[in-house]
């Protein structure tokens, strides 16, 4: 039995919704596939994150975090699902092709921070949506937005200090216990770069986010290993004056402002009985 139940006890997510789950699949984007439920399966629980938005070149606002949606599908054995997992800024979605309607759920990717036109603002977080077949319970169907990217700061290239850049932090991915966390704003001259939105502020500390021990499959781990990469689901830290680039986002998290860094890719995790 999966020990994921302890991570959903209480709070907005409800308690005990994962009892009896014995199988698990983890899909990191971008990809598309069809998944067929085992012959003994009668219920499938999906967790879906959109990809995080990034920051284009010369763009100092952080990208928005991807949205999140969860739904539990009661099914007949052998049911099939269409799964799409977005890349950076992409939408992730699931639909049950053997139901009519197909009960689609989706989590959009975070938005890339817009090119500066006056204020240097961050990209907005992704959203989520579901359309469930009549008669199917939505008691444990959740959807949350990703965090917005933080605003940045840059000096006039024609001014006396053309290289003063403070990139805003990227927003975190949406979480099962609430919305994503907005990225920190870049400072003014003499200030510091913005920190990324950190989803572990809700669940734990550092890289040992509570899902980390459960959300693994084979060689796929949600813990990012690059020193410049945010922890899983977190937004990247913004660029400071002495840094060449802001940090990419972790899975589902927005990339930081500071020029041409991407957000984290999308993610789909399923549990079945």
Helical fraction equals under 10%
- The helix/strand order is EEEEEEEEEEEHEEE
Mean pLDDT across all residues, rounded? 75
Q: Using only CA atoms, what is the Rg?
A: 19 Å
Q: What order do the strands of the largest sheet run in, or round the barrel if closed?
A: 1-14-3-4-9
Number of helices in the DSSP assignment: 1
Query: How many angstroms does the end-to-end distance come to?
Result: 9 Å
Number of strands: 14
**Could you give a short account of the major beta sheet?**
5 strands, antiparallel
Q: What portion of the residues fall into strands of 2 or more residues?
A: 15-25%
What is the general shape?
elongated
Query: Which structural category do the helix and sheet elements fall into?
Result: mainly beta
Poorly predicted regions: 1-19, 201-229
Topology of this structure?
Elements: E1 23-28, E2 31-36, E3 43-49, E4 68-74, E5 80-85, E6 92-96, E7 105-107, E8 128-130, E9 142-144, E10 153-154, E11 165-166, H1 200-203, E12 216-217, E13 220-221, E14 267-272
Antiparallel strand pairs: 1-14, 2-5, 3-4, 3-14, 4-9, 5-6, 6-7, 7-8, 10-11, 12-13
What are its keywords?
five-stranded antiparallel beta sheet; mainly beta; 14 strands; 273 residues; 1% helix; single chain; disordered N terminus
Task: Write a brief caption for the model.
The protein has one helix spanning 200-203; strands at 23-28, 31-36, 43-49, 68-74, 80-85, 92-96, 105-107, 128-130, 142-144, 153-154, 165-166, 216-217, 220-221, 267-272.
